[in-house]
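During the second year of the project, the team shifted from modelling isolated chains to modelling whole assemblies. The rationale, set out in the original proposal, was that interfaces cannot be judged from single-chain predictions alone. As a representative example for this report, we include one of the complexes processed in the last quarter. Its constituent sequences, exactly as entered into the pipeline, are reproduced here:
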Amino acid sequence: MDLITLGVQLLNAVQYGAVLFLVASGLTLVFGILGVINLAHGAFYMLGAYLAYWITLMTGSFVVALLVGVLVAFVVGILLETVFVRLLYGRDHLAQVLLSFGLILVIDEVRQLLFGKDVHAVAPPAWLSGSIQLTDNLSYPLYRLAICVFCLIVALVIFFVIARTKIGMIVRAGSENREMARVLGIKFDRVNRYVFAAGIALAALGGILIAPISTVFPGMGDGMLILSFVVVVLGGIGSVAGAAVGALLIGLTDTFGKVFFPSVSSILIYVVMAAVLLWRPSGILGRQDA
Amino acid sequence: MTTKGFLRPLTRRAMLSGTAGAATFIATSPLHSPAIAQNAPLKVGMMLPYTGTYAKLGQFIDDGFRLYVEQKGGKLGGRDIAFVQVDDESKPEAATDNMNRLVGREKADVVVGTVHSGVAMAMVKVARDTKTLLIIPNAGANDATGPACAPNIFRTSFSNWQSTYPMGKVMADAGIKNVVTITWRYTAGAEMIGAFAENFTKNGGKIVADLTVPFPEVEFQALITQIAQLKPDAVFSFFAGGGAVKFVKDYAAAGLNKTIPLYGAGFLTDGTIEAQGEAAKGIRTTLHYADNLDNPANLAFLKAFKAKTGKDGDIYAVQGYDGAALLDIGLTAVGGDFNARDKMIAAMGAAKIDSPRGSLSFNKAHNPIQNIYLREVRNGRNEMISIAQADVDDPARGCKMT
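Output from the structure prediction step:
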């Protein structure tokens, strides 16, 4: 394998990891900060993809679909938190699993009513539909490149918000020691709501971005949910930076697994996860005292 | 979107509760006894994927089958037909339970199914054990009309071997020397690629690399980069449904469609061509059907299917349609008396169907003998270029039936 091909494969890995990161960061935020296991996370990813399909069809613009889709997901997140999810804080994980599993069924039924069972294709924006010629036979789709850049920007925004803003400070305090923060007079209700909604929006964003390169189909969230949990556990539960590292690792494992060890590529991800957890039981960037 | 007034297929959830009962029934009555009264409707169990990556395929088979029955006034061979539907979700692990339920609890006389080869093989197993009449309207698993063949099992579709074997010679004759193959790592994928490779290497071609991804994964980018690096003369692929849409789009997005021609089993562009759009242009495939087959049966079929469903009929619809035609021939031969099984099966085995795909007959293993067409995607349709091989008969390796 020559250097350019290796480079392209690296790019493939990063692009795959970038979308994984988006989805997994939402999952890890909700789990790390609210302590809620959201099994419906993959369903929101699917919902994002369907929204992308539908809004693109209606307006003819993928960019509109991106903006509106994320907004819709955010609003749905706020509603869900207000009505259901806040009942779960402090409850045992079984209650959370049951509620979020119920959400999966409801979302899937709604999806079926609105969009049916067909497989759909979504066109990327025209100005991103070409590809860059690297050598005479190797080229790279512009849209995939754009995903990498876009996800990098989103990641930087997330890190900035968490590290540098007041809301981020509250979020960090809440995830470190909720009781102490409460005693110090921080009101978590509103923050919880926004964190949950942001988590949902990130899942939907992942689905929207993947729609033009994947197809949109029922059940597309199932595989993504499992992968996201793998990423979250690998990186350390609740750590956004961990999600980034974990997603990159999974992207690399999957891509190079397919190229070099095709016959075992499907289990390679789990082999890597097992190996990492033996080395660091709480994940790569997880708090090891946990 | 599907807005027809059919019974909604049973979901897996609903099914789980019924499974226990069905299992008990099967255990206590190993020999399934067919319907009692001759004037009672014949119960046809449709076990097809109504959700998941193959949902559209399942729906078209279902629509095709029902279209034929409707054209005969709701009767086949003078016998009323009643339907019961089960969603198999393309999940092999649930297949035995679903099939047992249809045969045991629902007391289906005939079962029609399915798309996924793994699911179909589980159905074949139950059909063999219970002697239920099974008509396979898609799944091409070679074994179903090979080692697992049985008098009560018919196929109105194809064997995997049959659909791609002719392409080996077509590509070799076109001067193609080096080919990379790519498919899902499951039975159908291995058999489609295997038959192609068998004929291609026999005619002097060379398989440079044999790429696979786990079923039903759709992230192909790493392998597409690898294809670009290997620079073969052409790529031969098998994917179907949503995966086929994705693969063809990825292949075009990487610019490979301009430098390395893409060939495949017909399923690559059948039922998927609309979603693939521009990306599918120029892809050549082999299949036992083409959209522009200019025979009276096909023209009439396409018109009727469009009138019934509002959609353009395709090979899946044809296979369902022919499944009903085959059952019709059997029931007609016995005047609707399903108990005269031997006579009925003999009539079905000797059937000659004037199918939309061309004339159709059956070999001793009950697999169709049919033309395989070479098609190219033009104007958003799979248009026939030539007959890749006429009257292709699956060798039915391992079938002991006489």
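The two ends of chain B are 45 Å apart (CA to CA). Chain B touches chain A through 40 residues (CB under 8 Å).
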